[in-house]
Write a structure and sequence with these properties.
The chain is α+β, with helices and mostly antiparallel strands. It contains ten helices and ten strands. Strands 1, 2, 3, 4, 5, 6, 7 and 8 form an eight-stranded mixed sheet that branches. Strands 9-10 form a two-stranded antiparallel sheet.
Amino acid sequence: MDFELSEEQRLMQKAVRELAEKSIAPRAAECDRSGNFPWENIKELSRLNVLGVATSTKFGGTGAGFLSYAVVIEELAKACANTSFICAVHAMAATTLELFGTEEQKNRYLTPLAKGEKLGAFALTEPGAGSDVSSLQTNALLDGDQYILNGSKCFITNTGQAETYVIFASDKTKGKTSAFIVEKGTPGFSFGKIEDKVGLRASANGELILKDCRVPKDNLLGSAGEGIKMALSSLDRGRIGAAAMGVGIGAAGLNAAKSYARERVQFGQPIASLEAIQFKIADMATEIDAARLLTHRAAELADRNARFTREASMAKLYASEAAMRTALEAVQIMGGYGLSREQAVERHMRDAKALALIEGTSEIQRLVISRSELK
């Protein structure tokens, strides 16, 4: 594995970092306070042509791959975790379409997502089916040339904002789970409560309601009854994005802590000169580097079409928990200021906690890893 980014990846990283620092970071605090969906950020990223970074050029993406995708998500997470999360879930929907869609489905639904003309969502979680994806109660019944969908989803990112939804349901006709493409505005498809969360507050996590929602048979994604396989494959790739978010959130906490430690004077000297602070900074920096390497390894394996389920779970587990530890240490270093809403580190702490729950909890990641180790 090459530990250095390519020239193209460095240029992409530089462009996203400059946009993030100039436009996205200044909006992050208000975005968090209000919980308002950051459409202006998404539009700017669309103009930069990075929303389809992991999608092939054939369908409007840049074809840069998952390592480049991880680099983009990390830079966004440093500035605004909400924006990075929205983009990561959008990419999950696009990836699912590219992996399992027909040529016609890709041209119709994937291309607008890759070009940033439309936003996507990935709808798996239900009130009674979070970690247990085999317990879906939302159901689909084939009726002639249409499927009738009934049920509800919860905590779906980009709810009400996305135009294209990849929705998983128990296929009554097949007796197994299937996946469907459902467009915003389809009769019988509506949106419910948007959650008022502690972290990732502006990512529009909410409820989808399907009541006798009819979708064309042509909107069946992949083969009938193969929804679980498709969901797990997409989640593997989604965990690369979640891991990259952890790296970005952790790096933001580390940068804030270093800046404060250099400026804060106690006992006649900057606290950065105190060994206790130096050791905290050293541990934080080591954890972030380790998380980044795990993330890049998983992304590089995905780009080579090699098996990476275990590696993606390792990256997501370590990066999300490292982000939390780093954010807590940043708050500790900053003392009372670290608890102030005027400082970003308390937001990083809340966003990091939310990150440990999305795309599979830490416990689920440990289960995936242990199964791989023990089989």
